[in-house]
């Protein structure tokens, strides 16, 4: 079963940002905070506050960690590294330059505990959040799961996702957004 959700975040810069979690993997959802990488790049993490909001929207921590400019820059470097390695996985290529990812994955992750109400409590600073993302990327990129990494079939979407479909024939990152747009466009073209 694939978890799909969209969380709206009010930014100080551009108004409202929708963080979408449709990739089927935490690391790919983090890489997906950049859209349309080959055309009109859409950056969802425009500053430290956006990254802090993403950490809670992703369900990594219950309270957003403090994020300074250096931590924000480090997170963006990790995000691009995850994307680069996931593209290599998609293309069936060997991985190179793994030091950054492995360094993050080796750090202590977000701490989880049981709350008095029976719920899970998640705590950690930005380093723990990035360690958790790094560990998710390691789990994803380990073969054979890496062979299931795909890129959305919509023309302008560059989002990567894990194809968990039974036949391995999933074409879009999200049927509600990209899939419906492509199908509607094809319908209009056929009836024009």
UniProtKB/TrEMBL annotation:
Source organism, top-level taxon: Bacteria
SUPFAM superfamilies associated with the record: Jann2411-like (SSF160904)
Q: Quote the InterPro entries the UniProt record gives.
A: ABATE, ABATE_dom_sf, Znf_CGNR
Q: Pfam families per the record?
A: ABATE (PF07336), zf-CGNR (PF11706)
In this chain the Zinc finger CGNR domain maps to 149-191
What protein name does the entry list? Putative RNA-binding Zn ribbon-like protein
């Amino acid at each position: 079963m694939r978890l799909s959700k969209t969380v709206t975040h009010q930014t100080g810069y551009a108004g409202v940002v929708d963080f979408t979690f449709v990739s089927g993997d935490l690391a790919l959802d983090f890489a997906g905070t950049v859209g349309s990488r080959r055309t009109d790049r859409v950056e969802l993490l425009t500053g430290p506050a956006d990254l802090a909001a993403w950490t809670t929207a992703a369900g990594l921590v219950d309270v957003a960690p403090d994020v300074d400019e250096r931590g924000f820059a480090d997170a963006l470097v990790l995000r691009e590294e995850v994307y680069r390695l996931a593209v290599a996985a998609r293309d069936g290529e060997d991985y190179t330059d793994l030091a950054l990812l492995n360094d993050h994955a080796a750090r202590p992750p977000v701490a989880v505990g049981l709350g008095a109400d029976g719920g899970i409590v998640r705590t950690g600073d930005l380093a723990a959040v990035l360690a958790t993302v790094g560990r998710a990327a390691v789990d994803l990129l380990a073969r054979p799961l890496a062979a299931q990494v795909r890129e959305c079939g919509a023309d302008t979407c560059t989002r990567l996702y894990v194809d968990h479909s039974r036949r391995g024939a999933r074409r879009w990152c999200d049927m509600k957004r990209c899939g419906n747009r492509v199908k509607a466009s094809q319908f209009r073209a056929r009836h024009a």
